[in-house]
């Protein structure tokens, strides 16, 4: 069962305005590769002649990014700022190691030093909205308590209660910072202080890097060929075969490789393979796949990306995916040295808990079953290359929480 992308109904864009247009401009490219159609100039242009023979004249611009494999964190580090921005803005690959998603540590530090708050990052904007929602709930609760106290006092005195306005979500506006009694530091900054701040900004070093999961890194390498991974010791580029074996060995325990290979090598249930099959399945369908540990799931699926979901199109709720490995041969599970997540049968209370958590945050839960091929059926020699991925199968089931008050029809 393949997952169908949610439809973009009329009026679904909701919020946005200038910020939505800016996001559409920044994140216009869904993949790191840029496809530029060539202009056929003249009747006998070479590009026009190629089109006669069915050869496309489109130019593919490859950014050729570089990353460093880190075994301790089971990830790939992209330290170059240009490469990090390309991978994030063209497909939302990876996350900043000092940020929740977008690598924005340097921008946040600059804004904090300027203390202006005019150009907010996505994280700062999200925290600002959360603070406004908390303030609205506090103001509404305070008004309700005052109205109740006024009603009781009026009843005891035998008079008509005065009207107390209770804030509404449609009309409530956050109070300016001056109302909180905080000093306006920006207004009191002198010219010398501004110059000192500019000099301090120039010396601020960006120590953040983009962190790619092994699944994200291999997808960019194998399918797009726009990332080169360097060996952490020699800083020499790794071949595709070396990367394939290195990513599988990242899930081995520490110890001599010769002795460990007898136990952990030639296993179709390697965690990297199982997780990559699920990641590749949804990425190939056009979804933006991100980690979902915050919501007790393995993956989150976005139609365009987390920036559009959280900032603008709130009705396009992402999907929460739980990856469940299934062994084709039960004997492989008994002899497996790996402890895969969700391999054991889960209880209904666990499923209800996960479903309720994601329903509260407007996410639809999906159970994704990855069938691991049997070693008796498939030759383990295929594990030396990505050709073994063709023997895995994926099935997904959508789970919805039944709410009697809303689902009577």
Kindly state the number of beta strands. Answer: 12
Low-confidence stretches: 1-14, 178-195
- How does the overall form come out from the CA principal axes? globular
- Portion of residues in beta strands equals 5-15%
- Whole-Å distance between the termini? 26 Å
Biggest beta-sheet profile: 5 strands, mixed
Helix content: 25-40%
Name the structural class: alpha+beta
Radius of gyration: 27 Å
What are the secondary-structure elements, in order, as H or E?
A: HEHEEEHEHHHHEHEHHHEEHEHHEE
What's the number of helices? 14
Q: Averaging pLDDT over every residue, what do you get?
A: 82
Major sheet: arrangement of strands: 5-6-4-3-7
Molecular structure report:
The chain is built from 14 helices and twelve strands. It has 409 residues and is of the alpha+beta class. The strands form three sheets. The chain has a five-stranded mixed beta sheet, with helices on one face. A five-stranded mixed beta sheet has the order 8-9-10-11-12. Strand 8 (288-291) and strand 9 form a beta hairpin. The two termini are 26 Å apart. The model is unreliable at 1-14 and 178-195 (pLDDT under 50).
């Amino acid at each position: 069962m393949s997952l169908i992308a949610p439809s973009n109904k009329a009026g679904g864009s909701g919020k946005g305005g200038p910020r939505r247009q800016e996001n559409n401009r920044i994140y216009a490219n869904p993949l790191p590769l840029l496809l530029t159609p060539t202009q056929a100039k003249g009747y006998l242009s070479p590009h026009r002649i190629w089109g006669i023979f069915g050869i496309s004249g489109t130019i593919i611009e490859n950014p050729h990014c570089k990353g460093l494999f880190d075994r301790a964190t089971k990830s790939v580090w992209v330290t170059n700022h240009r490469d990090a921005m390309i991978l994030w803005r063209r497909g939302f690959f990876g996350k900043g190691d000092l940020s929740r998603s977008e690598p924005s540590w340097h921008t946040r530090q600059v804004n904090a030093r300027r203390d202006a708050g005019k150009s907010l990052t996505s994280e700062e904007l999200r925290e600002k909205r959360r603070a406004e929602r908390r303030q609205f709930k506090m103001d509404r609760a305070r008004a309700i308590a005052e109205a109740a106290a006024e009603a009781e006092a009026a009843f005891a005195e035998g008079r008509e209660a005065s009207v107390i306005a209770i804030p509404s979500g449609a009309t409530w506006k956050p109070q300016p910072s001056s109302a909180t009694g905080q000093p306006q530091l920006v207004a009191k900054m002198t010219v010398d202080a501004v110059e000192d701040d500019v000099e301090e900004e120039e010396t601020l070093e960006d120590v953040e890097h983009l962190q790619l999961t092994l699944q994200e890194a291999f997808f960019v390498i194998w399918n797009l060929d726009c990332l080169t991974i360097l060996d952490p010791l020699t800083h020499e580029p790794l071949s595709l075969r070396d990367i394939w074996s290195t990513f599988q060995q990242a899930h081995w325990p520490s110890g001599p490789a010769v002795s460990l290979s007898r136990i952990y090598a030639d296993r179709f249930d390697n965690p990297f393979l199982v997780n990559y099959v699920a990641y590749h399945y949804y990425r190939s369908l056009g979804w933006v796949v991100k980690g979902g540990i915050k919501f007790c799931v393995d993956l989150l699926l976005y139609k365009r990306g987390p920036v559009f979901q959280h900032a603008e199109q709130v009705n396009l709720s992402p999907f929460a995916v739980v990856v469940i490995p299934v062994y084709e041969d039960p004997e492989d599970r008994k002899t497996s040295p790996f402890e895969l997540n969700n391999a054991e049968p889960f209880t209904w209370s666990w499923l209800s808990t996960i479903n309720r958590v994601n329903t509260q945050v407007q996410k639809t839960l999906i159970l994704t079953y990855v069938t691991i091929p049997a070693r008796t059926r498939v030759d383990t020699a295929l594990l030396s290359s990505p050709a073994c991925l063709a023997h895995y199968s994926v099935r997904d089931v959508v789970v919805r929480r039944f709410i009697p008050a809303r689902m009577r029809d």
